[in-house]
Structure formats: C-alpha cells, structure tokens
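Marked as duplicate of an earlier ticket. Keeping the data here for the record.
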Amino acid sequence: MKRIAMVSLVAVGLTSNCYGFDPLALEKLKALGECSECDFAGAGLKGMNFSKMDIDRSNFTGADLEQAILSKCDLDEAIFEGTNLSGADCKDAYIHHAKFGSANMVKANMSKATMSKGDFTKADLTDGNFTGARLERTRFTAATLTNTDFSFANLSYADFGGTSLKGAKFKGAVLVGANLAGAILSEADFSSADLTSAVYRRAEVYDGTRLATMDVAVTCKELQEGGAKIDAHTKCAQR
C-alpha cells in the first residue's frame, strides 16, 4: 500500500537515543508515505500526522505518540509496547496482530479499527473509544478498562480472563466464545450484547474414565449477580 502524505515535523524531537530510533526512518516516511519494519522506538512523535500511511511491522516501543493521528494507517504487526498513545486517533486503522503491552491509551480513539489477534496485556485503556472495532481473539489480560467503550465491537473469543471490566461498555458488542473467567463484572454494561458460549468458569467433569476440564458458559443470572447490566436483548445462557 503506497500512499503519499504530508507529515508535520513541528515541535517533534528527532534526536537519536538509546532506544535505537533512526531519524532517517522518519524522513523516508515523510517522502514516501510508507516505512515498513522501521524503528521508531523511543521517538518523540507527539501530535504527528501519520494518516493513511503504511507503517506495518514497525517498532514504536516506548515512543511518545500522544495525540498523534494514525487514522486509516496500515500498522499490521506493529509493536507499541510501553508506548504513549493517550489521545491518539487510530480510527479505521488496520492494526492486526499488534502488541500494545503496558501502553498508555487513555482516551485513545480506536473506533472501527481492525485489531484482531492483538495483545493489550496491562495496557491502560481508560476512557478509550473502541466502538465498532474488530477485536477477535484479542488479549486484554490485566488491562485497565475503566469506562472503555466497546459498543458494537466484535470481541469474539477475546480474552478478558481475570480482568476488571468495571464501568466498561459492551452495548451491542459480540463476545461469542470470549473468556470472562475470573473477570470482575461490576458495572459493566452488556445491553444487547451477544455472549453466546462466553466462558465464565471452568468445571471438572468425570467422563467415565477420567476427570476432564470443561468450559462453562456465562449465564444471565451470573452477569446480574456480578453487578453487570443486561437487558432483554442480551444473549446469555439461561441455565
């Protein structure tokens, strides 16, 4: 995907540092609108406009991308571990199989982005906007999800195991087969959400020859007892 785009360099620090950031990579991105497998680790890129650029498989570890514009970017398999993405705009971006471990994504706009098979372990997604995003088989282990909005997102088989979902919004979201085992459900909003086969706990069952572990789907009663909000359109087990 080759796109030519203008990049604002105003007030951006381009000095090299111990993380390995190569300023030439930014020059290439400015000139061509693309820079695959480039190293932006530790770079000061606050407020920069990367809209519609191809930056797949690039490394942004520890970089400052506060309020950066990454809308409609190709960021396939990019690394954002420990990155500051607070207030960043990633609407409609393609960020498949990317790593966001321990990233600061407070108030980030990830709406309608494709982020399936991503990893948000220990990331701070407070007040983040993930409405309509594709997040199939994505990991959210130990992430902070306070007031995070996942309305109408596809979270099929996503992993929320042991994570606090307090205050998170899942209105109209698809959570088919999602892992909610050990998750804190208090004040989470699952109105009109599809939690078909979503796992809430695991049980040992004797199959005649040995004990086997079986996933147990979450029930509407368990959601309510956990303090979550559901409505007549929420799809959950009635057992």
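See parent ticket for discussion. The first strand starts at residue 199 and ends at 206.
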